[in-house]
TrEMBL record:
This is Lantibiotic ABC transporter ATP-binding protein. Belongs to the ABC transporter superfamily. Gene3D superfamilies: P-loop containing nucleotide triphosphate hydrolases (3.40.50.300). It holds the Pfam family ABC_tran. Keywords: ATP-binding, Nucleotide-binding, Transport. GO terms for molecular function: ATP binding; ATP hydrolysis activity. Residues 6-229 form the ABC transporter domain.
Amino acid sequence: MDNMILQTHNLCKSFKGQQAVNNVSLSIQKNSVYGLLGPNGAGKSTTLKMLTGMLRPTSGEILYEGHPWSRKNLAQIGALIESPPLYENLTARENLKVRTTLLGLPDSRIDEVLNMVDLTHTEKKRSGQFSMGMKQRLGIAIALLNRPKLLILDEPTNGLDPIGIQEQRELIRSFPKQGITVILSSHILSEVEQIVDHVGIIAGGVLAYQEAVTPGQNLESLFMQIAREYRKGGE
């Protein structure tokens, strides 16, 4: 489908015989925010790591813009998985300079991404002295350096205070208008309701639900219903 930037077909990942991700088939529309929900240990991070090449699928297929995924597609994918990869003794600008040098990108890109994540005011402050929210935003800035079409964020609001969560929400919602599709994982349902266009719910490694979010929809109620059904099915 032309409007899909990424799809997976029956994606599986096993660790020592244990199935962490079981036949997951995602459909991610271009220029949207897709929320991948599930309790801790459900398989969210494992799925995202396969999409970014950090883990190799045991079986199944990943399609990027209609073609089988290959490592060259990483040039169009940005990701923040787990903790932001920061040199804490360096400033925000110096952290970004390290990456532009490695990627062969112009220094002008540093100011562009600092502006996008509202970190232009940090100047000589070392990133180790940043708040959690500022560290997360710098991690996103690093992920944006290569002008990705797809941005993958794993629990981007973890550890943030209410102000940091609101700032992160506004930042993420701004990306589709800039031609950037976002996949984010989270277990904070109330927050996801305000950000995403589509939602997928993983329970026990299985994609139990995948639909567009409708106005007034209660994700928490839906999530609890699916979690209970899965738990009953596993008994």
